[in-house]
Amino acid sequence: MTNNESTATPKTRPIPQEAFDWYDEYAHGFIDRRTFMARLAGLAATGIGMSVLTAALLPNYAEAEQISFNDPDIKARYVKFPSPKGHGEGQGYLVVPTGLEGKAPAVLVVHENRGLNPYIKDVARRLAKDGYLAFAPDALYPLGGYPGNDDEGRSMQRSMDRAKIEEDFIAAAKFLDNNEKSDGHLGAVGFCFGGYIVNMLAAVIPEILDAGVPFYGTPATEELRVNVRGPLMLQFGELDKRVNDSWPAYEQVLKENGADYVAYVYAGANHGFHNDSTGRYIPEAAELAWSRTIGFFREHLAD
Questions:
Q1: Minimal CA–CA distance to 187: which of 134, 129, 126?
Q2: Residue 2's pLDDT band (boundaries 50, 70, 90)?
């Protein structure tokens, strides 16, 4: 079932839609930085300041912290995990509720195509604040980890063997599911590339993944999609044509599989609308999508 939302509308911005489309092309490797900046310069020449454009499109992670790493309700640390079919060893950001007595449901948090940046770490903290055992692996760990800026992180991730990265996330999911603090219920939430990873996990480890929430993620390969049974909650931005074009065929397979799924499309929202570090962020849509995500996990990660 797909639900088109009209309740979440973007704030008025002086930024033309093509600028957001160009950023999506740049962020996903379809154009290089020089081409992207040249296009922005062309817009700037029409009267929109370059500083306005870059502030709206490029991340400012100082704005992405909703839950401080010093919050007394959580405890965060980095832990390593084995990945024999991937890069041999991985590392991730594990966040545990400090008041946890016994065990809790676990949620894997999967970053975009640029490594474990501050926004994704904050998402993990938000989940722990809500009582979940949250684990956010860094695909860039074999190369030294997220480098501190998205441009370099994107180049690093693009240089890596994608099949091994996927195996690292499969290994991370199994590691989390077997964590001593996990109660045996496993969820996953991911954004962009991470949304793809959640769809992939739903296809390759359906017996382990109890609930998946891909935000604007493309589906697994066609030969794997037949394995997806859900439950899945899929989140889409209305203006995200690149990802949305993949949805009708995927939905048809989910229907044929008899999969348990629900999908939401947020009006006026671009790819990345949940990321509160950029101008693509739409608070109303992001908050609604996140409240639905937490509700979905509460429903499916409980006895």
A1: 134
A2: low
Spatial contact of 135 and 77, defined as CB atoms under 8 Å apart: no
| Number of neighbours of residue 259 by Cβ within 10 angstroms | 18
pLDDT tens, residue by residue, 118-147: 999 999 999 999 999 999 999 999 999 999
Residues 6+ apart with CB under 8 A from 119: 59, 61, 64, 275, 276, 277
What are the helix (H) ranges across 108-246? 118-129, 150-158, 162-177, 193-204, 222-225, 241-244
Q: Give CA–CA dist 108/45, Å, rounded.
A: 44
Question: CB–CB of 133/182 below 8 Å?
Answer: yes
Q: Identify which of 286, 279, 281, 282 has the alpha carbon closest to the alpha carbon of residue 40.
A: 279
CATH code for the domain of 200? 3.40.50.1820
Strand spans (E) along the chain: 2-5, 74-83, 88-97, 104-110, 133-137, 182-191, 211-215, 232-237, 261-266
Look up the domain containing 103 and give its range: 2-59+83-300
